[in-house]
Structures are given as structure tokens and as C-alpha cells.
Amino acid sequence: MEEQMFDVEEAMPLNPVESFLRMDRMPHIWCPSCGIGTTVNCFGRALETSGLDLDKVAIVSGIGCTGRVAGYLNLDSFHTTHGRPIPFATGLKLANPELKVVVYSGDGDLTAIGGNHFIHAARRNLDMTVICVNNFIYGMTGGQVAPTTPISATATTAPHGNFEQPFNLPYLAESCGAVYVARWTAYHVRHLTKAIKEALAKKGFSFIEVLAPCPTLYSRRNKLGDGLDQMVFYKEHSEIHHNIDTKTATLDFQGKIVVGKFVDKERPDYLTLMNEHYQKKFGDKYTPYKG
Amino acid sequence: MKADPKGVLTGSHFLDGDHACSEGAISAGCRFVAGYPITPSTEVVERIAERFPLVGGVFIQMEDEIASSIAILGGAWGGKKVMTVTSGPGFSLMMEHIGLAAMTETPCVFVDVQRAGPSTGLPTQPAQGDMMQARWGSHGDYAIIALSPNSPQECYDLTIKAFNLAEQYRVPVLLMMDECVGHMTERVIIPPAEEIDVVPRRFYDGRKEDFLLFKPDADLVPPMVKAGDGYRIHVTGLTHDEKGYPHMSPTAQAKLIPRLVNKIKLNADKIIEYKEDQVEGADVVVVSYGITSRVAIPAIEQARKEGIKVGHFRLIVAWPFPEKRIQELANKVKALVVPELNLGQIFYEVERNVYGKVPVTLVPHPGGTVHNPQEIYNAIKNTHLGG
Q1: Is A274 at the interface with chain B, CB within 8 A?
Q2: Which residues make Cβ contacts (< 8 Å) with residue A171, sequence separation at least 6?
Q3: Is the dihedral of CA A188, A194, A200, A205 positive or negative?
Q4: Which of A290, B149, B243, B257 has the most CB atoms around its CB within 10 Å?
Q5: Its pTM surpasses 0.80
Q6: Are strands A257-264 and A180-185 parallel, antiparallel or unpaired?
Q7: Quick check: A28 contacting B, CB < 8 Å?
Q8: Residues of B in contact with A58 (CB under 8 A)
């Protein structure tokens, strides 16, 4: 019998996000039902409607599962060292201010090894968008405890359960001076897409925390089911509270999840402050820095 | 290409080595510096902070040396000539990004004003204890270029040279100063801008569709682009192919890493610079660098007065090491003497290239001050006597 020829690729409608991806690098390394890919999808859709010139958008990642995002996006993309995407992005932005610089990395990368850079970039109000995919664990290295691991959750380096208080990242970002702070989960794809679009349009340090399932190393170890079970959990346990006091946006192990846009305010960014300051100081002798 | 006159302070100045380094950077076209305060290097960034606003540069004091050392790499991919400045403890923190710069072929200058270590050591006092760290400090195989000035004038001149080499070979270049050279004040002549040679960035000028970010030219160095130019580049510290994409295989490793080393190794003759004084016909040659090359002079002169034929070989480029010339000297002279402000670093490199043909004497010093020239003289005399 003659085999029926059916070209699957031809029959499939083009995913609108594909043009933002390096399709020649597919398949990606992420596990089935990992949440990172969902966030990348949202990022692509946000870019699509952002009106940004994509030749002027640069993405910087650190190391880890989310650190691989830079490598899959069809933008000027930099995969740097562990914990250091923010200072790399700082240099990139200051050297070439016409770039829209996005840092896309994980919770361990940005808030443990890179915590110092995170707080200082927010303090300086550097014009960059930081997207932190928080899966509560070190995924790439096999499931170690992170500064975001909830109390009582277990990890390979906290086999008897974590007893350290985790970071409340929105509170940290706001208190350091971020002008835009939001938290969503991988379930909230429309909210997240909108938040990324808003953050990209913001001048200054914008921060989005995205809670995402790590089915292989966090959910399985903690007997929380697979990625789908986690998405159901996010759906059922998330409460949207815009503009709440970020101090109250703490996360407990499998407790209520407060999501929403918490901060959206104006504050001059680093280069604006620098130019204004030197113009005041030097008058006509100073040429405003534009890169 | 000649230097941009904006910022070139042509004239005769009375500057310390740190300030001369700052002026060298500005003359070379450096317009992005990230740094973190550390003695005895701080004066370099202080002068940069003072001067940069009116020459169109951006200086940022980062939160630590790790941040400084990667901020400059971001700055380089943003299109600027970049530098960071530090001393021992900060230099240790920067090692990972010297590796990233080597791996991603990012042109950049690291200045290390060496102080006595290890650890906090003697923050305000000199040493030359970071010479091997400069060469080997980051993990894995790679090559860098390191320069060793011995005066404020050379701090100016060699900073320009450091930038030029960084651009020519797309490699981190390390300016290995020491506390004495950094803090001594002498006359520094800054020439007119039109007399200062500056190597521009090797920007790609071929067809866009043929572009591969890490496809090398004949000299093994690939041309560069910057973020925002529309090439949608990918730059990673992972082992990568010519497109810049991660390639996790021994084959990709075997293609990339030897090239990173060979682009310096095979161009070494063009990079290497040293200065010789009465080396021809000498029985003993003193091999030195940095401040120690000046401390050695009275010792050499005293020995010459006593009729000993002493030559002086001074490293200006420390890495790549002038292997061939040391091998030649080993066939000509009877002994070599290596004074340095450490307990033996460049000494081993000299000894390795001598192949046991003649004795090589180390004149060690743990740092904190410079040698007493008498120690160097004694070593010359003893080795001359066959002692």
C-alpha cells in the first residue's frame, strides 16, 4: 500500500512567536511541562505588539535553565556568567543607550549569586527590564535549595526541608527603587504578556517575577505532581491584588499566591540623572551623553 | 588611525603612573570605564571620573570588581573601548571575566596595580606577585597579552598600546603595573593627537548574509559587530561554533580553543616587545620588568665598574613571553639573573626556556618594598664567579 504523504510542517499554521526565536536552535533543552518556555512565548507576544525595533532590543541571560533563554531568542543575545547578566547589561546599556536591554534569568542567578547586582541596578534605576523566572529551585544543577525555596520544601541540599526564609522579590525590588514591579505565574499568560509589554515601555528598572513550574526537580521531589498540576495549583491559589503593599506579597509553601502589578511609578533613570547633573555642573561645556 | 584630539592633553606633565594610565586610556579612545576602589589603583579611576564627563565618556563605580569586570564586556559589545582597574584582591575576583572575555573575544583592558599579597597583604606597598595569575588565573586554556610599564611615561604609552593590542587581537590585555610605578611622579610627555596611533575596532564590512560572528580572518582574529547593528548576534561563554551558537562537543572545543591560544601564539613575534642594554657580548644578563628593572640598574652599573660584562634584558610585553629571545640568550651568555618582587614567577618562565644550558639565579623578594640593589649585585657577582 502506498504511504499517504502528509507534510506536518506545511499543514501547521506558523506560530506567531517563531519569528522571535532562533528556530535553528530547536529543540530547546527545557523539560516537558517546564514553565520557562511559556514565559518565552509571552515575551515573544509582548515583543510583537511592543512596537520596538527588534534590531535595537538586546537580551542578556546568566547561567541556569532560564539562562538559556538568550540563546533561543532571535535578538542580539548574550549568555554571560553565573549571576552577572545585570552588570553586563549595565555596560551594554551605558555604552549604547539606544538599546532596549532585557535581562532574562532565573531566581538563583539573579537573587543568590547575582543579588548584589540586582539591588544596585534597581537603586541606580538603570533603564532595563529584568524578568526573573522563579521556579523555587536550582534546576540546571539538579534541584538544590535557592533563596526563593519556600520554608519546608525539600531540595537536594535541603533534604530535610528548607528552614531559611525565602526572598519576597517584589518587596526587594521595590525597596531598592524599581519603577515597575509585577508578579505573575506561568498560568497567567495574558497578564504576563501585558506586564512584559508594560515593562518594556517603562523607562527605568522594571522587574517581573514569574512563578513557573519545575516539574522535574521541584514538583516531583515535593510530591506536587507534574507541570500541569502546578498550573492548576497556580490557577486555584492565585489572587490578583494590584498595587498592594509588596511587604505583604510573601510566598509560603503551597499557600496563597499574590499576583498583580504592584508598582508602576516614575523616577528618572540613571542616564537622565547623569546628563541632568552634568549639564547643571558644567553648563555648555557638557555635551549630553547619547552613546 | 590617529587619536581623537578631544581629550588628548598634549604637553609635558608631572604625573604619577596611575594618572598617566588614565590619560593613556583617554588618548587611546576609551570611553567606558567601570571600576571599584582599591589601593593602590584608585587614582586611575578617580582621574577618569574627573575627566570623562567632558570627553564624552561614561564612568561607573560598580558594586564590586566582579560587576566592574563584566560591565566592561557589556560596554565593549555596546561598541565602546573599555577598561577596568584594580589591584590584587580585585584582580582575583575578576578572573572569571578575563576567561569570558577570552572566550567571547571581547576587546578590553584590565589594569592591575600590583600590591603585596596574598589576600589583603600589604595594600599600600609594591609587589609583582600577580604575573602568573595574569597568565593563568582564569580556568581552562586561553591566551592573553600582558604589559609591564616601569615609569609613568610608560604607563601612558603602554596603556595606549594595551588598547591597540586588545582591538587588534580581540583579546583582554592586562596592564601589569605595580604600586611603585603607579605612585611615582615623573615627567610624562603626551604627544599631539596626530602623532598617537590608535587601532580602531575591527568591524565587519562584508555582506550581511555571509556574516559569522566568530569566523576568523587570516590572522585567526574574527571581525566584530556591536549590539544594535542588526546582526542579531549570539555571544556565549559556552563552547561555540563560528555562528556563536553553543556547540557541546569535543569537536567544537578542538576547533575553538586552540584558535584562541594560537591567535596570540602565532602572532607573538608581532606582539612581543623588550628592551636590551649591552646584551651582546655579556657574560651575565639580568632579566627584569616593571619597577625592578629600575632597581636593577645600580646593581648592573656597579658590577660593570668591576669589569663584569652584564647585560640587561627588560620585558615590556610579559605575555606572550619572549621565549625565542631567551633561548638565544641561553646560547650566548654564561648566566642569567632574574630579580622580581615575588618568590619566583617569571623566573620559572626564563628557566624553562634556558633548558638547563646556563645557570639562572632568582633574586626573590616577598614585596612590601623594592629590592636593595645590593641583593641583585650579589647575585650577579656570585653567578659570575660560578657560585
Answers
A1: yes
A2: A246, A247, A249, A250
A3: negative
A4: B149
A5: yes
A6: antiparallel
A7: no
A8: 227-228
Pairing of strands B145-147, B172-178: parallel
Q: Is B42 helix (H, G, I), strand (E, B) or coil?
A: helix
The vertex-A140 CA angle with A138 and A144, nearest 5°, equals 30
Residue B340: phi and psi, rounded to 5, are -155, 155
Nearest CA in chain A to B66: A84
Per-residue cell: B241: 561554533
According to DSSP, the residues that pair with B285 across neighbouring strands are B311, B336
Q: What is the pLDDT of residues A38-72, one digit of tens each?
A: 999 999 999 999 999 999 999 999 999 999 999 99
Query: pLDDT-based confidence at A14, cuts 50/70/90?
Result: confident
| CA proximity to A188, closest of A229, A224, A227, A231 | A231
Calculate the alpha carbon distances from A105 to A78, A93, A258 in Å: 11, 17, 21
The answer to whether A25 faces chain B, any CB pair under 8 Å, is yes
Residue of B nearest to A71 (CA): B234
Which chain A positions have a beta carbon within 8 Å of B74's beta carbon? 60, 78, 87-95
| Tens digit of each residue's pLDDT (9 = 90 or more) over B273-307 | 999 999 999 999 999 999 999 999 999 999 999 99
Per-residue CA distances from A109 to A82, A119, B249, B329, B340 (Å): 6, 13, 25, 51, 41
Task: Please state, rounded to an integer, the average pLDDT across all residues of chain B.
Answer: 97
- Residues 6+ positions from A150 with CB-CB distance below 8 Å: A136, A162, A166, A251, A252, A253, A254, A255
CA contacts within 13 A on the Cβ side of B174: 33
Determine whether the interchain pair B227/A87 forms a contact, defined as Cβ–Cβ distance below 8 Å.
Answer: no
What is the C-alpha separation between B324 and B331, in angstroms, rounded?
11
The confidence score (pLDDT) of residue A9 equals 64
The 10s digit of each residue's pLDDT in A163-207 is 999 999 999 999 999 999 999 999 999 999 999 999 999 999 999
Asked if A71 is an interface residue toward chain B (Cβ–Cβ < 8 A), one would say: yes
